[in-house]
Structures are given as structure tokens and as C-alpha cells.
Amino acid sequence: MQANKIFIETYGCQMNEYDTELVKTILTQQDYTLVKEERQADIVMLNTCSVRENANRKIYGRIHEIRHERQGKPVLIGILGCMATNFRKALLDDPHLGIDFIAGPDSYKQLPTLIHEVSQQGQKSFDVTLSEFETYSDITPTRKDGVNAWLAIMRGCNNFCSFCVVPYTRGRERSRDPHNIVQEVEKLVQEGFTQVTLLGQNVNSYRYEDSDFTDLMKMVSDVKGIKRIRYTSPHPKDFPIKLLRLMAERPNICKQVHMPLQAGSNRILDKMNRTYTQAEFLNLVAQAREIIPNIAVSTDIIVGFPGETDEEFEDTVKVVEASQFDFAFIFKYSPRQNTLADRKYPDDVSAEEKARRTIRLNDVQRAISHQKNLAHVGEIHEVLIEQESSKKSPDDFKGRNDANKIVIFPAGPYKAGAYISIKITDATTNVLKGIPV
Ligand code: SAH
Ligand code: SF4
Ligand code: F3S
Q: Domain segments of the chain: what residues?
């Protein structure tokens, strides 16, 4: 039997979403077809995340579920993405999981061969080699319908923050040729996209020959027809003033930035290998706000890193209060195999304490988010319509403003992909609400 109906499920970050789009192109260029439902597929692939333990657990649960649903009927199951590198052996050797093939983030061009090996020769197959060169710049992703196009400009990470598995799962930093990126952006405009989000594990560490991230942003911003440029995820160490100035000058670069703080205590930041101090981080946020007055700033924070005392956690609370983030993703520290933190420091903050710190920090941040959102009431925002009715109510439309905040407004004869002026009339912690003007 020629197994050729494919279904892919994606977990984790935007880079994985993007990679799934690459995999779809690689496979449909061969004789594979994509199906809409997992149950119709001969081959199910899970594009996995490994950043925290619960991400891993979710995948194991899902594999058992798929096997159970099929009740012994044949289906090939493949694991892609960030679990591939670290968990290849455990995944392949577990007879209850019955994994058929595994491909790491740099091996997607091998997928047709890997699938052939298992479906034709009945042999489990894998390739988890990490490459110093693969950027998939020759593959055009099969993009989902929508108003935003993801575009990976670099891959991998050389920072080795002590808690983080990404340098192990995705290998070394490498960037794409800026001219090749610009060509892709021009193509996106022709296809009707007006918003592009540049992606990289360390997007602002981009470097190709003499071009750095600011040079690339300038080139992308010059592309005619592109109205909104975003980028994620940056590292605070690569924010030169010239980048902030460019963001301020160019109307089509969104006034929004993600600045992952991780922790507020200098001792913990040092143990995390983050390369900046509390003062340097606060300085950077202040500088960004000075150069780009209306900029929205979001962040990532880890609570309960090994050895984090109550006082050190309170340092994080202080930095959060001082930074006035628009939004924060707060995570409990989760030890990851191979990382420096896991080898060197015992995970000694209890689960209860991590939960308490998460709740405390969330309370502080939610109050700030709400207040910041309420401050927009009365303003008029340009909103890119994403959805013709919002999840909660069919009478509402959903879009985003320049700062990437969700804006909800009453339904009308508007289309997704259009821009509309909305007067903000109310706000919650997570969304702005308004009416078209
Ligand atoms: N490259 C990005 C981060 C990608 S991972 C950066 O440097 O900011 C996304 C977020 O997951 C991180 O910012 C961090 O807050 C969180 N994270 C990573 N490893 C973690 C771990 N071991 N435990 C808990 N959270 C973690
Ligand atoms: Fe992980 Fe740090 Fe690299 Fe971000 S910069 S991906 S947190 S190692
Ligand atoms: Fe997860 Fe890999 Fe992204 S670990 S967060 S899918 S880079």
C-alpha cells in the first residue's frame, strides 16, 4: 500500500508553525496529499516542542490517543521538531508508542526518504542531524489562509541560556541571505499579505555577511505594499539604538517589541547566563520608550529558577512594576535534559512555591495590563481585521492594532485582511473594545 495521505499537528512556537508550512511544501512536491482530519490520514506527524516538561507530556498523551483511536488499524506516526533531537532513542525504543519515523528541525528535506523507508521497507527511520547551513531558503512555505505571513530569517541559537533546551534541539545560529528574504516579502505582497512577522530563535542576532538585523529591517521596510512588519523572538542583548531609531522612523515597522526579561535578580540573571543586568534591562526598556514613545513591550519570565530566593523573586516583581509591560508570559522553571542548569543546579524551588510566585506575578502584571489597556480608551486605532467573527460572540469581529493588541468591534460589512479605524471605548486585561469610525 502506498501511504500518502498526510496530517500534521503543530505544537510550540511560531517557528514550528512555520516549519510545518515548509514540511507541507516538501511533501506535496512529492506524491503526498494533505488531509484536513487526522482520522483520514495514513501518516500522522506531530511537530513537537520540548521547551518545558508539560510540552513533552502533551505529546506522549497525544500519541497514545492516536493509537487508541485507530484500534490497531495501520497508521504511520512521525515525530518532527524539538523533541526529535533529545528524545530520539526514548521515542523510537518505546514499544507502546510505536513511533515509525523521526525528523529533527534540520532534516525536513529527508522526510520523503524517511517515510519511504518505513512504508516500503518496514524499517523505522530517523534523521536528527543538526546543520550549520540549512535555512530552507529554497522552500516556499505552504501558508495558511490568514492575514499574517511568518517568515524565518534565521534559525538556531548560540546563547545557551542555562535553562534552555533550544540550542540543543535546533543547533547553531545561521541566517538567510537578505536579498532572498526581500524577494520572499515581495512575493507575499503579490499574494495579498500586508503583514509579515520575521522569525528567529534570536531574531535580532541576525547576521549575513555585512548585513545585521537593522540593515535587513530597512530592506524589508522598503518593500512596496508591506504595511506591518513584526519580529520575534529577540534577545535584549541585540538592541542597538539604530534599530530603535529605525523602528521609530518607519511607519510600517510595528511599534511593538518582545523583550524577554526571564528574571529580575542579578544573581539569577547571571546563573541563567542572560548576559545583562537588572539595570541594563531597565535601561533598555526606558530607551525604547524614549525613542518610540507609544511602543508596546511584552516579556517572558521564568519563576522558580534553581536557588531563586523569595527576595530574588521580589526583584522580578520590582522589575515588572518598573517596566510596565503591556503583557507578560510567565512560566514555572522546568528542568531540561542536557542544559547547564539541569546539570549544575538542583530544581529546588518547590512546586507550591513556583505556583505561589506565578499567581503573585500574574496578579501584578494583570493589573498593569488592564491599566495600560484602559489608557487607550478614547483613542482611534488602525486595526487589521483577522476574523470576521470573534470566538466569544458571532456579532463581533476581531483584529489587531499596530501594538499587536486584540481589538474587538461590532460585526459589519468588512473583510478579513482589511484595515479599519476603530475608536476604543473599553478595555479588559487582554483585549481592547471599540466601534468603527
Ligand atoms: N529565544 C527566546 C526564547 C524562546 S523559549 C528568548 O531568548 O527570549 C520561550 C520562553 O520559554 C523563554 O523566553 C522562557 O521564558 C521560557 N523557557 C525556556 N526554557 C524554559 C524552562 N526550562 N523552564 C521554563 N520556561 C522556559
Ligand atoms: Fe533559549 Fe536563550 Fe536561545 Fe532564547 S536566547 S532560545 S532562551 S538559549
Ligand atoms: Fe518549543 Fe522548539 Fe519552539 S522547544 S518553543 S518548538 S524552538
A: 5-127, 145-254, 260-375, 380-436
The model carries a pTM of: 0.95
Which of 14, 18, 51, 202 is the best mutation target for the ligand 3 pocket, counting ligand atoms within 8 Å of the beta carbon and taking the most? 51
380-436 is a CATH 2.40.50.140 domain? yes
Angle made by CA atoms 160, 163, 169, in degrees to the nearest 5 = 60
Distance 255 CA to ligand 2 centre (A): 23
> Cell numbers 514540511 label which residue?
23
Give me the pLDDT at residue 334, please: 97
Q: How far is CA 77 from CA 6, 62, 211, in A?
A: 10, 11, 41
Architecture of domain 5-127: 3-Layer(aba) Sandwich (3.40)
Looking at domain 260-375, which CATH architecture does it have? Answer: 2-Layer Sandwich (3.30)
Nearest residue (by CA) to ligand 1, atom 18, is 164
Q: Which residues line ligand 1 (CB under 6 A)?
A: 51-52, 163-164, 166, 201-202, 233, 235, 260, 262, 300, 302, 331, 333-334, 336
Ligand 3 neighbours (beta carbon < 6 A): 12-13, 15-16, 49-51, 81-82, 165-166, 169-170
How far, in Å, from the CA of 143 to the mean position of ligand 3?
19
Query: For the segment 3-34, what is each residue's pLDDT rounded down to a tens digit?
Result: 789 999 999 999 999 999 999 999 999 989 99
pLDDT at 392: 66
> How does DSSP assign 190-245, residue by residue?
HHT--EEEEE-TTGGG-EETTEEHHHHHHHHHTSTT--EEEEE---GGG--HHHHH
> What is the CATH T-level fold of the domain 145-254, as seen in this structure?
Transcription Regulator spoIIAA (3.30.750)
User: How many angstroms separate the alpha carbon of residue 360 from the centre of ligand 3?
Assistant: 26
- Identify the nearest ligand to the CA of 158 by its number: 2
pLDDT in tens, 75-112: 999 999 999 988 888 888 888 888 999 999 999 999 99
Total residue length of the chain: 437
Ligand 3 atom nearest to CA at 13: 3
Q: Which residues of the chain have a pLDDT value below 70? A: 1-2, 390-392
Give the residue among 232, 230, 176 at the shortest CA–CA distance from 201: 232
